[in-house]
Amino acid sequence: MTARILVVEDEDIMRITVLDHLRSQGWETDDAVNGSRALELVRGNHYELILSDIRMPGLDGETLLTQIKKLSPRTEVVMMTAHGSTDDAVRCLKKGAADYILKPFDLDDLSFRINRILEMQAIKARCVSLEHCCGQRQPIIGSSSQMQKVLALVGRVAASDASVLIRGESGTGKELVAAAIHYESRRADKPYVRINCAAIPAGLMESELFGHEKGAFTGADKTVVGKFELADQGTILLDEIGDMPLDLQVKLLRVLQEKEIERVGGRVPIPVDVRVLCATSKDLAVEVEKGSFRADLFYRIQVVPIEIPPLRQRDGDISELTDFFLKEFGRERGLEFNLAQEARQALEKYAYPGNVRELRNLLERASVLSPASTIQLWELPIEIRKGREEPTPKSERIADAVAAAEKQCIRRALEKTGGNKTGAAAILGISRKNLWEKLKTYGL
Fold first, then answer.
1. CA gap 274, 192 in Å, rounded
2. Could you read off the pLDDT of 40-99 as tens digits, one per residue?
3. Residue 221 burial class via C-beta count within 10 angstroms: exposed 0-12, middle 13-18, buried 19 and up
4. What is the pLDDT of residues 260-281, one digit of tens each?
């Protein structure tokens, strides 16, 4: 993406000369004849860099710098100054200016300084992505027709900036799909920020998303930039968006429509250019009917829906994923793991209520505990060895048959809800406490 630069200069000849040079270098440029006009442009646009004179009539460059840093902390500012005002330039550096250049200056020197600053911005953006995604970017494994359809859809939506809603059971790989969309998009070299809406207390989520000003609440001893500002020009993933409180859903809808945020305690809107991806294990259409999710937000984020199939519906992918994970664990331990045929067959028959995450975890456990490089059937968990169905009870007593049938019903309910016990209890028509007691009784 081409960098956008704002030139603030009251002298017409100087301003036009700098603008012509920057445009010849391929940068998008805007200009302002004074500080007040510059602030208007900053409120409505995003600039990677602002080149500003220090001494201007009305709003001077030093005051302008302070305002810019409040409105757009990640925008860099280079001050232009005459020889006699270098003290002013030094004060600006202390207030957050990236550099200053003495008039009259060489235009090639100006280009060199701008390129250096933009390169540092790119490095900072990559650092943000690495902080949030280190160890998370993995290939999407799956040759089944179900997963190939998903991957084809990922390739098509990546080219646009459309909002995407990724839905699937827990452990199906929603975050991997979101990462694939970002890294195949035109924003791939910009920040990729993830936030789990279910993991943050409701009282802290607004500050986490939008940031807060110093003194906005007790303990806010400094201004903090939120995730949306960190993701500016890039992509943000709102994972488990179905757990977002209703009051925040209203504010998120405004951000998506207006493309601007307000920090907690702030009064000035801050423009942001962020692609929003959402993921959830809930059926948001059902949540809308319940009144726990806003219908207008649902339609806004579901421009393109992507449904991730559960592992039990992905024909042939279990064996492919198994080989991939065993190679991964083998590299970590300097070994070459493989499966006995009976163990592989048992893995392929299991239903995986926890999906790919469950498969990975049980293979890691088996690779750690196995005394040899070949993992045998007896080394797998008992639920894998038994398969999906319970054996027919040997006893002819009605109580035993009822218990076996009840156990099957509970297991199937847990499979349908991806292991969610509250949802399973609702399907079974019993209380969550009652379900817990039955799980303990049956050793599930």
1. 10
2. 998 888 888 999 998 888 888 889 998 888 888 778 999 998 766 677 778 888 888 999
3. exposed
4. 998 888 887 888 899 999 999 9
How many CA within 13 A on the CB side of residue 128? 27
CA distance 417 to 414: 5
Burial of 83 by CB count in 10 Å (0-12 exposed, 13-18 middle, 19+ buried)?
A: exposed
AA identity, residue 359: L
Helix ranges (H only) for 142-221 are 145-158, 174-183, 202-210
**What is the 3 state secondary structure string of 310-341?**
CHHHCCCHHHHHHHHHHHHHHHHHCCCCEECH
Residue 367's φ and ψ, nearest 5 degrees, are: -70, -30
Q: Distance (Å, rounded) from C-alpha 169 to C-alpha 164?
A: 17
Domains of the chain, first to last: 4-125 (3.40.50.2300), 147-309 (3.40.50.300), 312-386 (1.10.8.60), 398-442 (1.10.10)
- Burial classification of residue 145, based on how many CB atoms lie within 10 Å of its CB (0-12 exposed, 13-18 middle, 19 or more buried): exposed
DSSP letter for each residue of 77-141: EEEEE-GGGHHHHHHHHHTT--EEEESS--HHHHHHHHHHHHHHHHHHHHHHHHHHHTTT-----
Buried b (16+ CB within 10 A) or exposed e, 339-357: beeebbebbeebbbbbbbb
H or E stretch including 428?
Answer: helix 421-428
In which element (H, E) is residue 403 found? helix 398-416
CB 213 within 8 A of CB 264: yes
- Determine the Cα–Cα distance for residues 41 and 31; give it in Å rounded to an integer: 9
Neighbours of 372 (CB within 10 A): 10
Read off the pTM. 0.65
